UniProtKB/TrEMBL annotation:
Gene3D superfamilies: Periplasmic binding protein-like II
Cross-referenced InterPro entries: TRAP_TAXI
Superkingdom of source: Bacteria
Keyword Signal: yes
Coiled-coil positions: none
Signal sequence region: 1-25
Alphabetical UniProt keywords: Signal
Annotated protein name in UniProt: C4-dicarboxylate ABC transporter substrate-binding protein
């Protein structure tokens, strides 16, 4: 665990700017922090925005650097009730909460709305880099600070005992052209497959490939995953990787506190009710990653928000305008599904 400290000291420095409460306003608009334009987070956020729009409500979908920025924004940015983050961000912060008051303050009130999907750790590299160990002495882009890619890449390299010659703070969208121009040797990107950066990136399979991640230590810390052959045009064969779960994060709003908390709590409850009752719509019309979402698979260390459970209550009244699309009555199968979720997360 000592290997994590150098990375987490950077996180602590960022978290030091946080107060103990999120910014407050008299009224609450709803927004969700997502990710870069080429990433899966943004597409998932847009799917949720469309879902809220069906209920006559507005959800501002905000691009960001990724998980760390999203975590900070839910804690500090006005009118920001949701963020999509990697589940390991909270886990590693909690590991050091007892030793650093800034981290302890930052994680106070953080809650999960729903677990989402597994995000594969992509390492695109030159063909001569056969495995993770071959990144030693190379020029490797690990994402920008405040991104989940940065945190996970740093931790993976540390756990594996691999020391590149250069660890460059470059976003994946900027790293791809640099890789093609031989300015770097490889870059990390943590994103749910298929990630548009790779589907639209015109990548030469004779020059580049996805590096397999088969380290036993990493497979114990993260979820082993296999990327199916043909997921990307340049990748005809299956690739063994590791993955980390993405979650929809929120805050523990207290409706009795003030108007902002009441409005934010209602927005969180409405979102929870919509996701629960229209998950099949998201699977049918949204990003392919919705197909693998298991709403009962809450990662360790995360607690479900009170306002989320309020929206999951079968008696909750979702205040959609009459002109908006209404949820159809549950089938017997859906009722069983609802009961299963409630048994786990306590509706």
């Amino acid at each position: 665990m000592r290997r994590f400290k150098s990375v987490l000291h950077l996180v602590v420095a960022v978290l030091g700017i946080l107060g103990t409460q999120p910014a407050q306003a008299q009224d609450a608009q709803l927004s969700i922090m997502t990710g870069a334009s080429t990433g899966t987070y943004l597409q998932i956020g847009r799917d949720l925005g469309n879902l809220m729009q069906q209920c006559g409500q507005s959800l501002d979908v905000v691009e960001s650097a990724g998980s760390l920025e999203n975590f900070l924004a839910v804690r500090q940015r006005p009118n920001t009730q949701f963020g999509i983050v990697q589940s390991d961000v909270l886990e590693y912060m909690q590991t050091f909460a007892g030793n650093d008051p800034a981290v302890a303050r930052a994680i106070t009130g953080v809650r999960i709305a729903f677990p989402l999907y597994e995000e594969e750790v992509h390492i695109l590299a030159r063909r001569d880099i056969a495995g993770l160990a071959d990144l030693a002495g190379k020029r490797v882009a690990i994402g920008v600070e405040n991104s989940g890619t940065f945190l996970t890449a740093s931790l993976i390299l540390s756990l594996a005992g691999v020391e590149p010659a250069e660890k460059l703070l470059v976003a994946p969208a900027d790293a791809l052209p640099q890789l093609k121009a031989d300015q770097i040797d490889a870059f990390f990107y943590v994103a749910g497959a298929p990630a548009s950066l790779y589907t639209e990136g015109d990548i030469d399979p004779d020059r580049f490939h996805l590096v397999p991640i088969q380290d036993p230590t990493l497979q114990a810390v993260y979820s082993p995953a296999t990327l199916a052959g043909g997921t990307y045009d340049f990748q005809p064969d299956p690739v063994e990787l590791v993955a980390v779960k993405a979650v929809l994060m929120t805050y523990e709003y207290d409706p009795a506190r003030n108007a902002y908390h009441r409005a934010s709590c209602k927005g969180v409850s409405d979102m929870a009710a919509l996701i629960l009752t229209r998950i099949e719509t998201l699977r049918a019309e949204g990003h392919p990653k919705w197909q693998s979402v298991d709403l009962t698979d809450i990662p360790p260390g995360w607690d479900v928000g009170t306002c989320v459970n309020r929206g999951l209550d079968p008696a909750y009244q979702l205040s959609c305008p009459a002109s908006a699309a209404q949820a159809v009555p549950d089938s017997e199968a859906n009722e069983a599904y609802r009961r299963s979720i409630c048994a786990v997360i306590g509706c």
